[in-house]
Amino acid sequence: MSFSAYVDSYPVTAYIVGHLGLSVGDFCRQYEFDPTIVTGVTGWRTANRSVFSLPADFVECLAITSDKTADQVRYILRLLEKQHFAYLATSPVWNITPFQLVPPISSQKTQREEA
What we know:
Blueprint (H helix, E strand, L loop, with lengths): L10 H9 L4 H7 L4 H5 L16 H11 L3 H21 L20 H4 L1
């Protein structure tokens, strides 16, 4: 079965289609995730969920499929997320404020952690 290789800018979709060469539906079926959670109306994409808050088991499945470590996958997802936020900030369709582009506080390192 063929699928469109068109990739939207949401990092999870971009990774699955662009890096794994799978449709989101195929990936979700393979690892028994509900595809509507990833891309559906009430899913992560619609909620613009940060890659910092993705479940560990989901990231592990991405890592297994791509023969990378979970840390490598997270790093790639963060890069894709930066590109995604840059796209949203310049897109006239989206009304995104700088406040909305800041990752969640729980994902930011404190000064103590950086030292």
